[in-house]
Every structure is written in structure tokens, then in C-alpha cells.
Design brief:
The structure holds 2 protein chains of 2 kinds.
Chain A lengths: L18 H15 L16 E6 L5 H12 L3 E6 L11 H10 L4 E6 L4 H8 L3 E7 L5 H15 L6 E5 L6 H12 L3 E5 L15 E3 L2 H5 L4 E4 L15 H8 L3 H4 L7 E3 L12 H4 L6 H20 L1 H5 L1
Parallel strand pairs in A: 1-2, 1-3, 3-4, 5-6, 5-8, 6-7, 8-9
Helix pairs in contact in A: 1-5, 1-11, 2-11, 3-4, 5-6, 5-11
Chain B lengths: L1 E5 L2 E4 L4 E4 L1 E5 L2 E6 L9 E4 L4 E4 L1 E6 L12 H10 L2 E6 L10 H14 L3 E6 L13 H7 L3 E3 L8 H11 L6 E3 L12 E2 L2 H6 L3 E2 L1 H18 L3 E3 L5 H12 L4 E5 L1 H5 L3 H5 L15 H13 L4 E2 L8 H4 L16 H10 L6 H16 L14 E11 L18 E11 L2 E2 L4
Parallel strand pairs in B: 1-6, 2-7, 8-9, 9-10, 10-11, 11-12, 12-15, 13-14, 15-16, 16-17
Antiparallel strand pairs in B: 1-4, 2-3, 4-5, 7-18, 18-19, 19-20
The chains are: A alpha/beta, B alpha/beta.
């Protein structure tokens, strides 16, 4: 790992990364994977480094995943949740950033409901900033862990048929994923109700369809997205019952996919809305592998952004 | 008092003049335009060699923020910005605090503007009381105090009934109704133009159709009511087409565009890394829209270029994109931007630009100015098409620093303004 192509201070989005950088993160994550299989799941890599987890939006999965990754790398981590942060007391984001900066953390992991907030923070602090999801904009570590999972199963991306189905409009996961998969040469299809499809989605160079049957047909990978009822998806279709009838992934519908298809979901799932329970838990599902890979990806990202690899080099 | 402006290139779209001509001003009015004039006994001479001399530029869409939001701008700083930008007159929108929906606020604005004297200020009164979109404001009373147009700018007139009554009622006073054309029922949470870039950035979109719907509705009403209707900061290809069609049918419709809609697109939100200086209403639109607007200034459909000067405090803009207020300043950048990015590349000729910045705005509002014929009040702007300027917000006269054009190097800049023959000194 001495000839690292990684020189970035921040990980704000997949949009900024080259294919080479993406592959490098995936390779680095592979090397961290075995740490989680040890009886004592800890390496001293980030000992003495401070990581702040700044979550302005509720998150269980992503936050725990980052926290576990930090602890397994021996970093000192501190959590700020929205409820206890100054922002709710009226402190501006800029002041929050300046205060954090004054405490000299090495890395800041931020989740925020508004697009662009990690970018704003990154301009204000010397610490490396990791975007753990900014509104409907990007969620780069999710796309990276998805890619790691796909690579483990399919060994390649070039020409791979990946279909992403569901509430495209409100999803940061889909935006990071279409960027990443496009850079690595996969053939991406996005599918969803017309009322949940943002305009000009084709500009990403993806195929846009409006039926799940069409999306699943011949797919190597089917990635289901959560319908984000809390973000206004409710106005986009009459009922979750009708949504499931039109766009839910069922065993029947899955038959049209490739025989070795894998089913992914970034979680949390609405069972019976976008995916049937038996599919979520069925033999094609790699949903829990995604979660396991999440820890490895976040270890890799924390490691690369900490600059430790360059000090070793 | 006699003043001779000599040796400049005089462009007066009001009379179709574009020539090397001297301009003699006596007691604040144009005395004579001609070759090799003399200032006469006791007269002064202003050497305009190498400069362009035009009727005073008029910005018909600015926010001076006084009364009530003086931390953003006040009449003194806003009119200083106007003078620094080459404008001799501005028309200010009524969305102050309290709003300019009654005579006493109008009188305050008129009095303050006269006291400072950096630029003429034409107040625009509110259409509705409190700009609430419910009942008509006392338009007649405000016109008596100096209001030259009515608008609920910032708050589109959503009720078709109110808009119909406003158009009818405004006819009594022969003032135009200026609409911030946006159907708020479409793209309600939007913060940038709906298109490829809103999709990529995950930001809620403001569809162009929201503007088109409102312009279409209003023009249909105008057909019934007669009178004058002006579209503020028109931004889409479709609504421009609607105005073009309305004009062809002889309706009293006019429109303005801003420099930022002519020069930037929604892509700028991405390229600037979510800079809140790319957030305004209407939002920066698509490249197709921009091209249509450029065609509209060239073919004469568009009557005026207006800055929509909207100063905000730095603290208000230094927040996450979604929460930042809409708007950018423009008084001190408009002329330079237009000279460098519209005239220099040949998109329009210089006389056409002068028309868009003086004669056109004067005509749209029905105010004096935009012409330098003998007997006219001598409001004059002098500018250079050769001198360079770099947009430096820290040196603005405006209190607002919120511009996406910081650092732009422009060829062409204002040099001086005269109001009634007296040179404006910022000191």
C-alpha cells in the first residue's frame, strides 16, 4: 500500500473519484476484511487519531458501521447526534464547523439532510471530511460497499447488468451508485414509477425504464431501494399496496433475472412495499453481506483519508 | 450652469443616435447635441475622449431593503452602488419591512433618496395590502406619492381574481403591473432549476413550467383587462415565447431579464460546489433557456436588462444551500458583465445594450429618461468599453457581497454618472 493513488483530504462524493481510486478503496477494504474475522477485532492503525461522527439525521446502520470501523482501527471517536448538537440551539453550521475545527479532530464523518453540507464543512475545516449521506445527493461509502459486494460475487463490472429499482427521486444511494457503476463500466438500468423518477436521469448514461419486469429481465444484479415515505414519496403513488403490486420485488418477478442474480438493498427495508420478505431472506439475497462489507469499506476510507498510508510510504 | 461633455461616442437609442458628438448641458437640461460644441462663457468641459456617453442607465428591478432590513442594504448604500455601477436611476421593489403598500412608506423612500442624491429612486408599490395577495393596496394614494408601478415581487400574485383586478385598477393610473411569475403550487420546495443538475445534486427542483403557467395565465387576463403587464426577471424559453406572441397581438406586455440568467446556467450550482451565490429566484435555468434569452435580447422581444439586485447579509448566505435566501446583488456588475459578455463577443451591438439599460426600462415603466434630446433632463452615464475591471465584492458600495461573479475579469466598466447635469461624487 505504499504506492497509493489516494491523495484526497475528503470523500465527498463518487462524482469526484476516478475508476482507479474506486478500485483502490475496494482493494484496501479487502485487506481490512479479515480484521473483522479475528477473535480480537482491533488493529492499531489509527491509534491517537480523533474521529468525530456528526449525524444530523437519524441513522442506526451507517453510524454503527462507521463507529465499529473506527473502533476496530483504534481511533478515538466521538459522537454528536442532532439532538445534542448546537444546531438545534440555533448555532449555524459554520459555527459548528469552526468549533469542531478548534478541537482539532483528524476526521469528521457527517450525515446531513441537506445536499452539499459536507462540501461546505470540508471548505471550513482542516480535518478530512467523509460524507455519510447528504440529502438526496450522495452516499459514497454505500456505493463503495455495494461495489465491493458486487465484485466479490461477479469478479468484474465491465458489461455487468445492474438494475436499480424503486424510489429513485429521493435516493442518494442511487445517485452514488450510478456514478460508480458507470465509471467501472457496468450497464445500469434504473426503474421506478414515473412519479418517483427525477428529470433527465438519462444524463447519467443509464437506461431508464418504468416497469420492474423490464428492469429485472436478464439482470446480474438487482438493487432494491427503499420507498422514502417520510420524504414525500407518499404523494407519488396512491398506496403502498398498489406500489408493491406495481414495483415490489417478488419471487415470481425474479425468475426473469439471470440464474445467478444477486439481490441487494441498502436498508432499511420496507418489507412488503418494495421487496417481499421471502426474497429479502432468500438464496439470492446478499443484503447482510453488504452490511458486513460496510465496515470494511469504512475502515478503508478512514485509513486512506487519515493519511497514515502516506506516512508509512 | 453649463457643462460640455466633449469628444465621446454619444449613443442615444431614444433618438437613434450613435456618433462622435458633444453634449452641452445648461442648468441640468440638454441644451444641444452636435459636433465641436463650445462650453460657452463660464462653462466647464468634461473630456469624454475614448468613452461612451449615454442616457442615464436605469435598473428597474432592485431591492434597497429600506425600511426594515438596513443590515442588508439601505437607500444610501443601494444608491451608491447604483452610481458606482453606472446607473442614474433605479426602481425599487416594495418587499421591505413594512412593505411599501401605503403612502407613508413611499414618502419615506422618496425623501431618503432625495436626501442622498446618488441616484434617482422610483418606488414600486405593492399590489396587495401587506403583499398578502388578498386585497388591493391603496394604489392611487401611492402613485400620488411617487410610485411608478405596482408589484408583489417576491410573492407571486397567485389569485387570478386579484391579478385581474390589479390589471384593471392600475389602468386608472396608467402604471404597469409587474409580476414575479411563478406558480407556487408547482415545485413548492424547490431551490434550483429542475433539470439534469437538480437531479444530480439531489436538490428539489423549481420547474420552468411554474413560470410559464403564470405568464400564460396573466397574459390571458391581460387580454380581457387591457392595461400594462410586465414580467419581472423572465427566465424560460417558453415564457419568452408567450411574451413574444402577446406583443405580436398588440397586448401591453413587456419583460426584463437579468444578467445572471443571460450568462449562467443551472450547471453553476454544481460547478461552484453548492455555492449559495448561485441560488436565486427564478433559478439559473438550462442552457436552452439561456440561449432563448440571448435570442430575445437580440431580436427585441426583451425590453430591459435588470439586475434584480438582492443584497443579503453574509451570515444569511453562509448556510446550507437549501436554507439560504434567494438572490444576488447586481448593481455594480451589470454594466461590466453586459459589455464584456454580450457586446464584446458580438451577441448584441452596443446601441442595443444601451437601449436595454436605459430607453427600454424607461419605456416599460413609463418614466422619464432614456433619451438626450434638447430639453430633456440631463441624466447621463459615461462608460468605457476598454478599461478592465475585476469583480471584487469587498470593494462594493453595496452592503451585499453575494455575487457569483467574484473574480471575473471584465473589459468595460462604468466611469461616471450625472444626474440633472451634476456629476455624482461618491466621495
Amino acid at each position: 500500500m505504499t504506492d497509493s493513488p489516494w491523495t484526497r483530504k475528503d470523500l465527498l462524493g463518487i462524482a469526484d473519484l476516478s475508476a482507479e481510486e474506486i478500485e483502490h478503496v475496494l482493494d484496501t477494504a479487502e485487506s481490512f476484511r479479515e480484521v473483522s474475522d479475528r477473535p480480537i477485532k482491533k488493529v492499531p492503525t489509527l491509534r491517537g487519531r480523533t474521529v468525530v461522527n456528526l449525524f444530523f439525521e437519524a441513522s442506526t446502520r451507517t453510524r454503527s458501521s462507521f463507529e465499529i470501523a473506527e473502533k476496530r482501527l483504534s481511533a478515538d471517536s466521538i459522537n454528536f447526534a442532532a439532538k445534542s448538537s448546537g444546531l438545534l440551539k440555533g448555532e449555524s453550521l459554520v459555527d459548528t464547523a469552526l468549533n469542531l475545527q478548534a478541537m482539532a479532530p483528524d476526521l469528521i464523518v457527517i450525515r446531513h439532510g441537506h445536499p452539499g453540507v459536507p462540501h461546505m464543512l470540508a471548505r471550513r475545516v482542516e480535518a478530512g471530511v467523509i460524507n455519510a449521506g447528504d440529502g438526496a445527493h450522495e452516499h459514497p461509502t454505500q456505493a463503495l460497499l455495494d461495489a465491493l459486494t458486487i465484485r466479490q460475487h461477479k469478479k468484474r463490472f465491465e458489461g455487468l447488468k445492474v438494475s436499480i429499482v424503486g424510489d429513485i427521486e429521493h435516493s442518494r444511494v442511487v445517485r452514488s451508485n450510478v456514478l460508480l457503476l458507470g465509471k467501472l463500466g457496468a450497464e445500469v438500468t434504473v426503474a421506478g414509477p414515473r412519479t418517483l423518477m427525477p428529470v433527465d436521469m438519462e444524463s447519467y448514461g443509464v437506461r431508464v425504464v418504468h416497469s420492474i419486469e423490464e428492469a429485472v429481465r436478464g439482470a446480474d444484479v438487482v438493487m432494491m431501494l427503499r420507498v422514502q415515505l417520510e420524504r414525500g414519496a407518499r404523494m407519488a403513488f396512491p398506496s403502498t399496496r398498489e406500489y408493491f403490486r406495481l414495483f415490489g420485488l417478488t419471487r415470481e418477478r425474479l425468475k426473469a433475472a439471470k440464474r445467478d442474480v444477486i439481490i441487494m438493498h441498502p436498508g432499511p427495508m420496507n418489507r412488503g412495499v418494495e421487496i417481499a420478505s421471502d426474497v429479502a431472506e432468500g438464496r439470492y439475497s446478499v443484503i447482510l453481506e453488504q452490511v458486513a462489507n460496510g465496515v470494511a469499506i469504512r475502515m478503508a476510507v478512514l485509513y486512506l483519508l487519515s493519511g497514515v498510508h502516506q506516512e508509512i510510504g | 450652469m453649463r457643462l460640455l461633455i466633449s469628444g465621446g461616442r454619444l449613443i442615444d437609442p431614444g433618438q437613434g443616435v450613435d456618433d462622435e458628438l458633444d453634449l452641452l448641458i445648461v442648468d441640468g437640461r440638454v441644451e444641444k447635441v452636435g459636433k465641436a460644441l463650445k462650453p460657452g462663457r463660464g462653462g466647464e468641459t468634461l473630456d469624454a475622449e475614448g468613452l461612451v456617453v449615454t442616457p442615464g442607465l436605469i435598473d428597474i428591478h432592485v431591492h434597497l431593503r429600506e425600511p426594515g432590513q438596513e443590515y442588508k442594504e439601505d437607500i444610501a448604500s443601494g444608491t451608491r452602488a447604483a452610481a458606482a455601477g453606472g446607473f442614474t436611476a433605479v426602481a425599487c421593489m416594495p418587499n421591505t419591512s413594512p412593505p411599501c403598500d401605503n403612502r407613508s412608506v413611499t414618502e419615506h423612500i422618496v425623501k431618503e433618496a432625495a436626501r442622498h442624491g446618488f441616484a434617482r429612486v422610483y418606488p414600486i408599490g405593492a399590489i396587495s395590502k401587506g403583499q398578502k395577495g388578498e386585497e388591493l393596496a391603496e394604489v392611487g394614494d401611492m402613485v400620488g406619492a411617487g410610485v411608478v408601478a405596482i408589484s408583489d415581487d417576491g410573492f407571486p400574485v397567485m389569485s387570478p381574481e386579484l391579478m385581474r383586478r390589479a390589471l384593471l385598477y392600475a389602468r386608472h393610473f396608467d402604471v404597469p403591473v409587474i409580476q414575479h411569475a411563478e406558480d407556487l403550487g408547482l415545485g413548492t420546495d424547490g431551490v434550483m432549476h429542475e433539470g439534469e443538475w437538480s437531479t444530480r445534486l439531489g436538490l428539489p427542483g423549481l420547474p420552468g413550467a411554474a413560470e410559464d403557467l403564470m405568464v400564460a395565465r396573466d397574459l390571458r387576463l391581460l387580454e380581457e383587462t387591457g392595461g400594462r403587464y410586465h414580467v419581472a426577471h423572465l427566465s424560460t424559453a417558453h415564457s419568452l415565447e408567450l411574451v413574444r406572441d402577446a406583443k405580436a397581438r398588440g397586448l401591453g406586455a413587456t419583460c426584463e431579464v437579468t444578467p445572471h440568467h443571460l450568462l449562467l446556467t443551472d450547471r453553476e450550482v454544481h460547478d461552484s460546489g453548492f455555492s449559495t451565490h448561485t441560488k436565486m429566484k427564478p433559478p439559473l435555468r438550462s442552457e436552452d433557456d439561456r440561449q432563448a434569452l440571448l435570442a430575445g435580447i437580440a431580436d427585441g422581444t426583451i425590453d430591459a436588462i435588470a439586475s434584480d439586485h438582492a443584497p443579503h447579509h453574509a451570515d444569511e448566505k453562509d448556510v446550507q444551500f437549501s436554507l439560504a435566501p434567494f438572490g444576488i446583488v447586481g448593481l455594480e456588475t451589470t454594466l461590466g458583465l453586459c459589455l464584456d459578455r454580450l457586446v464584446r463577443p458580438g451577441l448584441i451591438e452596443l446601441p442595443r445594450l444601451v437601449e436595454l439599460l436605459s430607453t427600454g426600462p424607461a419605456r416599460a415603466l413609463g418614466i422619464a429618461g432614456g433619451r438626450l434630446a434638447p430639453g430633456d433632463v440631463a441624466d447621463v452615464t459615461l462608460f468605457s468599453t476598454k478599461r478592465q475591471m475585476t469583480v471584487s465584492p469587498a470593494r462594493f458600495e453595496s452592503k451585499g457581497r453575494n455575487t457569483p461573479f467574484a473574480g471575473w475579469k471584465l473589459r468595460g466598466r462604468p466611469v461616471a454618472t450625472l444626474i440633472a447635469g451634476r456629476r455624482v461624487e461618491l466621495g
